[in-house]
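Practice problem: predict the structure.
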Amino acid sequence: MLKITEYAGHLLKDLDGLDWPKGIKEMQHNWIGWSKGVELEFYVLDNDGQEMKLKLTVFTTRVDTIFGTMYLVIAPKHPFLASITSDSQKIYGEDYFEKALGKSELERIYLQKDKSGVITSSCA
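Answer:
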């Protein structure tokens, strides 16, 4: 909403020049939330295990743990969702997706402590 990430590098650099208590600077640093990491690309596989033209890009700060990846999570609004959900799972997913889309982003991300979802039956 505020696009803080576009200015994160400048904001963090400028914290050094401020005459603020160390604890306040650390809180600001954590709030800005700049993380060093990498983006990885996962290609969605079709039912025969062949790569589709669909690619999911994810960010991680722990690339050393990538071989332990068990699943990928995508948002209910993701444009690939309909095309990667199998027919057998669409029965379970339609009601869930409709309810999820009815919630605000704040409700879906920050206020809900218990995470939920529906399996698409796709692999990447």
